[in-house]
Amino acid sequence: MRASSSISPSIWGRICPQSPLSIAEIGFATGFSSAGHFSRAFKVRFSATPNSLRGKISSE
């Protein structure tokens, strides 16, 4: 698992609602060994899960 500090805000740009990639695909593409590891590290870094932020943005 990568350190949570290595998740940069630019990763958020890849998770925007318009992205055709799933959260798992984004996690694997950014070097995480599983979607769970990516989601947990993302939550530590941004205080929210990738899915919750994606849902919040798409509902605005």
UniProtKB/TrEMBL annotation:
Pfam families documented for this protein: HTH_18
Xref: InterPro entries: Homeodomain-like_sf (IPR009057), HTH_AraC (IPR018060), Tscrpt_reg_AraC-type_HTH (IPR020449)
Keyword DNA-binding: yes
Signal peptide: none
Segments forming domain HTH araC/xylS-type: 22-56
SUPFAM superfamilies: Homeodomain-like
PROSITE patterns given in the database record: HTH_ARAC_FAMILY_2 (PS01124)
Keywords: DNA-binding, Transcription, Transcription regulation
Superkingdom of this protein's organism: Bacteria
Protein name (database record): Helix-turn-helix domain-containing protein
